[in-house]
Amino acid sequence: MKMRNPPVNSLSLEFLTELLISLEKLESDKAFHAIILTSDCPGIFSAGLDLMEMCGRDPTHYAEYWKAVQELWLRFYLSHLVVISAINGVNAAGGCLLALSCDYRVLADNPKYAMGLNETLLGIIAPFWFKDTLVNTVGHRTAERALQLGLLFPPAEALQVGMVDKVVPEDQVLSAARSELAQWLAIPGHARQLTKSLMRKPTADRLLKERDADIQNFVRFISRDAIQKALRVYLEKLKQKKT
Ligand SMILES: CCCCCCCCCCCCC/C=C/C(=O)SCCNC(=O)CCNC(=O)[C@H](O)C(C)(C)COP(=O)(O)OP(=O)(O)OC[C@H]1O[C@@H](n2cnc3c(N)ncnc32)[C@H](O)[C@@H]1OP(=O)(O)O
Fold this sequence. Notes:
By secondary structure, the protein is of the alpha/beta class. It has ten helices and eight strands. Ligand LEDWP2DD binds next to strand 5, helix 3, helix 9 and helix 10.
């Protein structure tokens, strides 16, 4: 699955919906057993959630958007397919969440390709299920530091803290993901799937039990004047970077 939403693969409502539909199609076709998730945007895996969906819109839109974000995470996190990410670019916040929801992560060895949950740098916070997904991957202490400081880890550090499983030269990121896949596909499917569910269901259930409350919390939080201002300032900084 090659993500293509130029210029930065931001996860807009439309793009989230496309990803969901693609995933559902693959999952319902018995011929498919695995996905390699990668990017078609040079140097960028994903810039995360689309800030334009969270800025200057009305509460109904925020609620619709957040429901789609929840849905995409739940579907990827619990997918019965083997999902491996071949991370071939910078990968921020919501994009990083998507990679953390995969079964295995290969990152291209380029110092520019940092990844992490950097929400605090924007003046916002990573929701509890983003946090849980990170804790499940790198452990509590590393997650606590990474989340508070909004750290984006370059490849060597991402490997060292366990955020990714392998770092390879850029031109080998896809072939490394394919090689890894062979090992996962050699395991009897039902046993692997049940084990995945055993490991992940408690984390997913936390959100499933509080889905509506989580949407309401998001809408309340994102609608605050101070948060809207912080997002506008951040977007402005991104634009000024060019001049
Ligand atoms: C009491 C508590 C209750 C709590 C309740 C819960 C609360 C929940 C809170 C909210 C949770 C929200 C979670 C958010 C998750 C996210 O994912 S936020 C997004 C974070 N992403 C980023 O910080 C990355 C930002 N982008 C970049 O750093 C760079 O763009 C890049 C990815 C490194 C690429 O750089 P470069 O190649 O130089 O391209 P640019 O010129 O910077 O960008 C090109 C254009 O794209 C626009 N853009 C970039 N990122 C985004 C984005 N995420 N969304 C929308 N648009 C984006 C950028 O502005 C450029 O636009 P133009 O200038 O118009 O070309």
